[in-house]
Structures are given as C-alpha cells and as structure tokens.
Design goal:
This protein is α/β, with parallel strands linked by helices and 855 residues long. 49% of the residues lie in helices and 15% in strands.
C-alpha cells in the first residue's frame, strides 16, 4: 500500500527558506526543513522558537511570507487547512480543537469527511461504528456517541489522534501530543506512531520531553529564535548536544529542588468528599514543602485541587489553614486565605486571551493595582515586566495580547498572575505542560525558591520524573482516593505507578483498594464521571421532555383558571397562532446554533409580504405559487445581505441585523407608500390556506409541519447541517478543521431570509390585511423567545427543531391564555423577555453542571 522501503525514505515535504512574521515580529527566518516517508522527525526548541508556526504553514493554516513549500516534488501553496487535508497532511494541534456540543464521532470526522449514505445523508450508524473502531485502536473505551463537553484534555487529545487516523494521512504533524498523557498512554501512542511510520507515513513530532524524543525519533531538528540550528540523527547525537542547540548554553540541572527546612503545617485537608469524584481525601502540606500528587489522568487530582480552591463544591470535609478551620466556597475566599491555583487548562481557565499580558498579570489582585477604585495601568505594566524578566517570558511587550504568545509563554503569564498575589499556599496543576526544557528549569527554580521562602506548594503533574525530583512527599491518587504516600527517599517510578494502577502497595501509608479494570491499561474518565453523565443525560439530551411537560402544565393551569380555554374554538386559536412563528423560528434556530443572532427577521418577513402583496394588487391574475416564489426570493436576498455583512465583512451579527432591521423596515414604508393591502386585493386561494385543508387541517399548518420536518432533516442528516453545529460549538476549531465557515454562515442567513419570505406570503393568508405599520413588527422577540425556551444554547452549538416547536406552542398557549384573561399585551412582551432570561440561565446552569460533573 505504501510502496517499497526505498520509496518510504523519499522526501515527501520540504520547507525551503521559509519566513513568517506576525504584527511585524519575525517568527521564522530562512528556515529549511524536510520530512521523509517512513520516519519520525522531531522538532525541538524553546517556546517561541517557531515550531508550531512551521507546522501550521505545512498544514495550510498560515501562508509563508517568503520561501516555499515543496510537496511530492512540486511547489505547493496550501490555501487552507482543507487543501492540506486533501493532500494527505493532518495536523494535531497543541491545544485540542474540539466541538464540545457535538459527539466524539462527529469530532473525529467533521471537516475530514463524514460517512454518508446512498442519498448523501450523514450515515450515523457507520460513523459511530468507525469512530468506535478508531478509538479501540488507541485503547480508548469511550462511547463515540458521548458529547465532548466535559471530557478531560487527555481524552480530547485521544479523540484528535483518532481523527488523524481516520484520514489515512501521508504526513502526520503532531504538536505536543503527549503533553497531557500519562506514561502508559504515551507508550500506547508511540506504539501506534511506530506502526504508522512502518507503513510509510511521514511523522513530525513536537515535544519538550527529551526521554520521549530519543525514544521515538529517527531525526531531530532544532529551532532557536526562529532560525534552524541544525538536524541530527538520533543515533549520532546526545541529549546534552540537543539541549545546547536549543538554549545556546549548557543546562546543568533541570530539576533543582533539593528539599529544605520544613516548617509548620499551612494546609490541612480532612475528609474532603464530592460524590462521584473523590472520597475522604486527607493530607497536609507544610511551609517550605513541595507535595506532589501523582496518578493516572482521571484519578481525581484536578477535582481535589479545584475543591480546595473553591471552584468545585464539596459534600463533606474541612480545610484548615494555619491551624484554623476555614470555609472556602469560592475562589475569592481562597485568595483571601492566601491560596493560589494555576490550572491545567491555561487557555480556558487561566487566561483572558483577548486581553494584554499586563492586564492578565493583575487579574487575581486587582485591588492591589487600584487607587480610589481606578486601575493604575503603569503599575500593571511594571509588575508584568518584573515577571517577564523573572520567568524569561518571550514577548514583544507587556501590552501585547496574550493570545499572540506561544503555549509555554502563556503558561508563564498564568504563573505570574498567581505569584503576583504572594500566596502562602500555591497549587500548581501540570505547571510545565507544554513548556520547553529551558522554561521548565526556570519554573522549577521559581517553585523551589517559593518553597525556600516558606510557601506550601501542592504540585499535580503527569510527568513522573518531575514529581519524583521536585517533591518532598508524593501522594498517589487512584479512583478518587489517595492510594499511597511516599517520602522523597522511598519514592521510585515503579512504586508510584504500581500505586496509581493498583498493582501493588509496597511502601505506601495507605492500603489501596481493589483495582478497577477501567483504570488499568486504558484511557478513562474521572471516577464517577460516567455515572454523572448518565444521571444527567435524560434531561441534558432530551430537554424537550421537560419543555413538553411545561407545555402540558401551562395548558392544564390555564384550563383550570378559565374553563373556556380548552374549547375547540380556543384550541384552533392556539394552533393558528404558531405557524408563522414556527417557520421564522426554524431560521432563527439555525442562526443561534451557529453562535449568531438575526434581529431583522420581522422586517424581512414584512418586506417580503409587502412586495408579494403589491404584486397581487398590480397583477390580480398572478398565481399564488409565483407570488410565494417571489416572496421567498426577496427574503433570501435580504438574508444574503445579512450573511455577506457578517460572514465576509466581519460585522458582528447583532450590529449587522440591528442595522438591516431598521433599513428593511424603512423599505417596507417606501415600497408600500404607507398604504395597507386589504383582503379584497389578495387571491382567495391564498386566504383559503388558513381556512381549508385535508381532514379539516388548514394548509398553513401542513406547510408549517413540512418546513419543520425539512429543517430537522437538514440539520441532522446533511454535512452542512452538522457543520452549522460545529461552527457554533467552536468557531476557531471549525476554521482550522477546514470547514467553509463563511460559506456556511452565508447559507444560514440566506435560508433564514427565505423562510421569512415564506412566512411573509403566508401572512397574507393568516391576516388578510397586510399593514406596513404592523406586519412582522416585534416578531424578533417572540421568535428568539421560542428558540431559547426550546433549548437552543445562546452561545451556540446546541438546539433542536422539536424543542423550538414546543417553545412556539408554549408561547401560543401563553398568548391566547393571557388574551382571554384580558392581560395587557405589554405584560406579554415582559413575559417573553423574562422567559429568554430564565431559559438562558437554565442552559448556562446545565452546561456548568455537566462540565463540573466531568473531568
């Protein structure tokens, strides 16, 4: 399949004299680099050396400013990630690019080719089966139908690996794939990587872990300050030489903590428990001491750290600081008591990426940078500059946006933010994940210095050499419990791993429980995660059932208050209230799922209705079908204008559609000259759509049901439909996955306009008088209320047609019921606004619950 051994050693991709800069700052200068079929070629260098940028150029994410890329012997310009994927180049990014609201199976195949059926529809059965097979190859035992939301970074990384395997790529670019993996998971990954190499795949591997690099690599290329320092065969070099090439000097010691004087106990944890995650956690940390927490990913280490910091609720247990029992119910309480926490996931939990380095440095101690309530920006910059020098952070200046930094330098900014609070107790979760060798030594130096100053350090790390060398004592967690404790002198890698896996208990001060098979030799979730997700999934996945129950409850209550409410005449009023709202809501649902909003839907409906109605006035013989096509065409054109403004010109959706709302409303008056269209000017066949139909069901209801079914099928069974969810779930990941984001968003807004046009022509059936002053007026609020009440996530990525229809039905019941009770329409508008707030708050709470209940 991959050719002969000689062919496997051929060069497949070359970077020739490549240069790249950002914001005027050079990142790569005159870099040449080649990759051969059937080899593992490692890129090494300090953070900011240009490794990730070079990888992204080869993967089509960036274009070089100078130089060229040669692929298969031909000069090649990859215009997008999708073009690189089509050529057979797959990039696994340093930070997992996941769509949290979509399933694992969709995360594997989206942007890389969703399996399709005979009619071109998404083949869910095949997709889930193939995803399961890929995960099985990686030794991962997770249901591919599980949503990504709440998975640990390690599990997300394994999904990324499965996605890369799905491509059968010729070139596999892996940007620090082992950063969040345990040694066992790393061994399994290397087994897979070697197998791909033996089949002729060219693999580029980025890592800061020298033992891993020398274990798995065939060649090593070192970058420093954007320049290529040189390439070495692994068999012809040494770790010392590679380090000298990276940092330009000898690095005498990576782990420098030698232990020191241990003082009084600063932190005591007694019986800390959270159901399904950790149980009866007891330990202490003294002044001047570094206590390491080891264990497999998913053992509950991060959950315990977050509970101590007040970011995760506990069911039982107490904390004592300086011998005094304290209540830490929030991070604010923790900071007040002198606790600082450097989180594992720097981008989501540690930084505000759009803000400056100086602003991020002051975040945890804003009162310390304020005078009379006003921030002192000069003081912020001075502090940021101090930490820049102390941690050797590579940056242009402290006013630079933190998102522009490399991953390791971002980690240093997180450290500086918390060290700025001068904590007594510092909790660091994977403090050197993604940090190069030189920076790692600097971080270790800082931690050792803090310990010598009398701070208590609690360090969580999956890097066993780091844990063994830096810790005065080591706690080993397994399945949410402390399985063992070792002193510095008695700890060995074998003992720690035995305790973590439950295969032995020698030397431990705790007796490990019987090992669970799910934690041995496989990638897992945190203890209790599966039960948490299963317990919550009926409501999280089928939230429509709750909405349906509320609809029934509202109907029953209204019937009790006013018995006439359940009369046939009133039921018909409810049924006839919802068709136009449902049709427009179908478009608004797609818009909100894509993480946007359309405030102009009422104006688009109104202008479409006026244009079509005017045609009927001037051409009475015009068939209703032609009038409908004209209205849909007008709506599609108006929606496309919104799409161009948002997708191609970059105008925020709320601004763009607020502007077109006003503009289109003005066109309604201009087109109609302020004159309404009366019933006698409209075709009787149009009016009959709301009064006649098969089996007594008006055609307008049948048309509405057909629209809802078609939109549901579109969102569920077409590639574009799933791409809409992906864009809303993670726009950045969608772009880097090669999803045509702008084209999809243009289609979403065009479809929404078309649906508004359809609703516009039906307005003339439902309300025979088309009044320019009232047609479609305030429809935006009603439609958004229905979509959000129906379960669509206000921040995109989630929503359903069934839930939206139920939301429309609920509003119909409320509208008709309040009208019967002679409640002012102004109170109805107030109720709609309140419903949006309540539904959005509920959605946020459920998402937080799900994330909090998983690793």
């Amino acid at each position: 399949m991959f050719g002969s051994l000689a062919q496997q050693q051929q060069t497949i991709i070359q970077a020739r004299s490549v240069a790249k800069g950002f914001a005027g700052v050079p990142v790569l200068e005159n870099v040449s680099f080649d990759i051969r079929c059937g080899e593992i070629h490692t890129l090494m260098g300090e953070n900011g050396a240009g490794k990730s940028t070079l990888m992204k150029i080869m993967a089509g994410v960036h274009r070089p400013d100078a130089g060229e890329i040669v692929f298969d012997g031909k000069h090649t310009v990859f215009a997008s990630p999708q073009s690189a994927i089509r050529a057979g180049i797959a990039l696994i990014h340093q930070e997992p690019l996941s769509f949290p609201d979509l399933s694992i199976a969709e995360n594997i195949f989206l942007g890389r080719g969703l399996p399709r059926g005979v009619m071109g529809q998404v083949d869910w059965k095949t997709m889930n089966r193939r995803a399961g097979e890929l995960l099985k190859q990686l030794g991962v035992s997770i249901d591919p139908r599980t949503k990504m939301l709440g998975l640990s970074i390690a599990d997300q990384q394994m999904v990324e690996l499965a996605a890369a395997l799905s491509l059968n790529a010729r070139v596999l670019l892996m940007d620090e794939p082992t950063a969040a993996l345990t040694p066992q998971e790393v061994n399994e990954l290397f087994r897979i990587v070697r197998g791909l190499r033996d089949k002729g795949v060219a693999i580029v591997f980025v890592s800061h872990r020298l033992p891993e690099v020398f274990e798995v690599s065939d060649r090593i290329t070192v970058l420093r300050d954007g320049h290529c320092i040189g390439t070495r065969n692994v068999n012809d070099t040494s770790k010392d030489e590679i380090v000298r090439m990276m940092v330009g000097r000898d690095l005498s010691s990576l782990y420098e903590h030698a232990g020191g004087k241990v003082g009084k106990t600063l932190l005591e944890v007694d019986g800390l428990t959270r159901s399904g995650q950790f149980h009866d956690i007891r330990f202490h940390v003294c002044a001047g001491e570094i206590v390491g927490i080891a264990g497999l990913v998913g053992a509950g280490r991060t959950e315990v750290a977050e509970a101590i910091f007040g970011a995760r609720e506990i069911d039982a247990g107490t904390l004592r600081i300086d011998g005094k029992t304290v209540a830490v119910k929030s991070p604010r309480d923790a900071i007040k008591h002198g606790i600082a926490y450097v989180p594992e996931d720097r981008q989501h939990n540690g930084l505000l990426l759009p803000m400056s380095i100086a602003s991020n440095t002051s975040l945890a101690d804003l009162p310390g940078f304020a005078r009379a309530g006003f921030l002192q920006f000069r003081k912020e910059r001075v502090a940021a500059q101090t930490w820049r020098e102390r941690l050797s952070t590579r940056l242009r200046d402290v006013d630079q946006k933190v998102k522009e930094l490399s991953g390791g330098n971002q980690q240093k900014v997180v450290l500086s933010k918390w060290l700025q609070t001068d904590p007594k107790i510092l909790i660091v979760d994977e403090p050197t994940r993604g940090i190069d060798i030189g920076a790692k030594a600097e971080v270790h130096h800082v931690l050792s210095e803090l310990a010598r100053q009398g701070r208590a350090i609690l360090m969580i790390s999956s890097d066993l050499p780091e844990v063994l060398a830096m810790s005065d004592r080591i706690l080993v967690m397994r399945e949410g419990k402390i399985a063992a404790e070792f002193s510095r002198s008695e700890a060995t890698q074998e003992k720690v791993m035995a305790a973590a896996t439950g295969t032995a208990s020698a030397g431990s001060t705790h007796c490990p429980a019987t090992p669970s098979a799910s934690f041995v030799g496989s990638k897992t979730h945190a203890a209790g995660e599966t039960s948490v997700l299963r317990a919550g999934s009926p409501f999280l996945r089928f939230r429509e059932l709750g909405i349906l129950a509320f609809v029934v409850l509202a109907f029953v209550v209204a019937s009790i208050i006013e018995p006439r409410f359940r009369s046939m005449e009133n039921l018909r009023s409810i049924a006839m209230y919802i068709p136009l709202i449902v049709i427009v809501a179908m478009g608004q649902l797609m818009v909100i799922v894509s993480r946007n909003i359309d405030l102009s839907v009422g104006s688009m409906l109104g202008l479409s209705a006026i244009v079509a109605g005017g045609i009927f006035v001037s051409h009475p013989e015009c068939p209703v079908l032609l009038g409908a096509l004209i209205a849909i065409g007008v709506g599609t054109l108006l929606g496309s204008v919104n799409g161009v403004l948002i997708a191609y010109l970059g105008v925020p959706a709320i601004i763009a559609t607020l502007g077109t709302l006003t503009a289109y409303r003005g066109l309604i008056y201009t087109w109609s000259n302020g004159r309404q269209i009366d019933p006698d000017k409209l075709p009787q066949s149009l009016i009959d759509l709301s009064n006649h139909g098969p089996l007594g069901i008006p055609w307008i209801l049948i048309i509405t049901a057909m629209v809802a079914v078609l939109v549901a099928a579109f969102l569920r069974y077409t590639v574009t439909g799933r791409e809409i969810f992906a864009i809303g779930s993670n726009p950045t990941a969608a772009i880097l996955r090669g999803i045509p984001v702008r084209r999809v968003l243009l289609l979403v807004f065009a479809l929404t306009g078309g649906l508004c046009g359809l609703a516009g022509i039906l307005w003339g059936s439902r309300f025979p008088t088309i009044n320019p002053a009232s047609v479609g007026l305030s429809l935006e609020l009603i439609v958004i209320s229905a979509v959000v009440i129906g379960g669509a996530a206000v921040n995109g990525g989630a929503g359903s047609v069934f839930g939206t229809v139920l939301g429309c039905l609920l509003l119909g019941i409320v509208n008709v019921g309040l009208t019967m009770l002679q409640v002012s329409e102004f109170w109805q508008i107030t109720l709609y606004g309140a419903a949006i707030i309540v539904a959005a708050s509920l959605d946020s709470a459920l998402r937080a619950k799900r994330v909090g209940g998983a690793t």
